[in-house]
Amino acid sequence: MAALGWLTPRRRSATARSVLAGEASAEAARKSTQALDSQDALDASAREPQFPVHGDAMAAAFFDLDNTVMQGAALFHFGRGLYKRKFFETQDLVRFAWQQAWFRLAGVEDPEHMQEARDSALSIVQGHRVSELMSIGEEIYDEYMAERIWPGTRALAQAHLDAGQKVWLVTAAPVEIAQVIARRLGLTGALGTVAESVDGVYTGKLVGEPLHGPAKAEAVRALAAAENLDLSRCAAYSDSHNDIPMLSLVGHPYAINPDAKLRKHARTLDWRLRDYRTGRKAAKVGIPAAAGVGAVAGGTAAAIALHRRRR
Questions:
Q1: pTM
Q2: Whole-angstrom distance between the N-terminal and C-terminal Cα of the chain?
Q3: Per-residue CA distances from 241 to 150, 175, 212, 220 (Å)
Q4: Residue 9 confidence (pLDDT)
Q5: I need a surface site. Which of 9, 165, 251, 290 has the fewest CB within 10 A?
Q6: Which of 131, 117, 232 lies closest to 172 in space, CA to CA?
Q7: Which residues of the chain fall below pLDDT 70?
């Protein structure tokens, strides 16, 4: 027994050889796991080339806004802010709240709800100055939108910025609101629905149609031509099957928090999928306070280019 005195006391019976075997097995398992992890990382690297490609000036990224970059619909959050500032009555707020609740629960865009929301927004802003709505939009972003940005999607956008690429929001929300959000996130600019204005005052009409579905794809195509981009080297991100036309334009389509139809389509075509609604893959990143250069000018130029293209 004296020969076993160097062993750590144990409740169960163990010989020196069994202890040695157990420790050796545990160490081998640990090293094996580390080796497998390293090999998995190497295999993943081999399967998936580095993306986005650093310094590729002919590549850019296009992000849908609602439920892709931000939880919920920007237009509904904007409506809450306008109600707080007495732009409309309680019954209108109830309608906005119901539409927003439905959108959050269903996770998809209802065309009838979206059209009703746009019509309401146009009637509400009619007669107001564009500069006034832009200023209010900054306040509403801080009040209702900033805390609803998906960290995981924000990290994807930052990866493109860090690679020296331009990043654009593409949304059916009013372009002025989209520009505020893009600027506050440090993005390049935004494509959005353009409301008609005369001498800086909203008329209550749209220029063309809402930037939704196929119209988004046309906006991206027009912007790519104006910016001399190669769409096969660009990326697009969306949660909605309505954006399949936009996603299909680019060489790197991503389904983010996808609805059922988009998830099925993405899997069929082997598109990349990311779902941040569970928080499992969301990266914690800071949102820069500094504004991205050219957000307003870039978004306006793209909208004008699209409008000219359709005339």
A1: 0.69
A2: 98
A3: 19, 22, 11, 17
A4: 45
A5: 9
A6: 117
A7: 1-49, 89-121, 278-311
Q: Which pair of tokens denotes residue 26?
A: 């545990």
Token pair 């090999």 in the structure block, residue? 39
At 186 the pLDDT is 97
Catalytic residue among 37, 43, 66, 142: 66
Q: Tell me how far apart the alpha carbons of residues 111 and 116 are, in angstroms, rounded to a whole number.
A: 8
Which one-letter amino acid corresponds to residue 118? R
CB 218 within 8 A of CB 305: no
Structure tokens at 47: 């399967």
Exactly one of 40, 43, 64, 275 is catalytic; name it: 64
| Contact between residue 132 and residue 207 where contact means Cβ atoms under 8 Å apart | no
Q: 3-state DSSP call for residue 203?
A: strand
Distances (CA, A) of 96 to 80, 119, 199, 245, 293: 8, 12, 29, 28, 33
In the annotation, is 64 catalytic? yes
Predicted pLDDT at 114: 57
Distances in whole angstroms, Cα of residue 110 to Cα of each of 48, 149, 265, 302: 35, 21, 19, 26
Query: Running DSSP on this structure, what letter comes out for residue 141?
Result: I
DSSP sequence for 244-293: HHHHHHSSEEEEES--HHHHHHHHHHT-EEE--SSSSS----PPP-SPPT
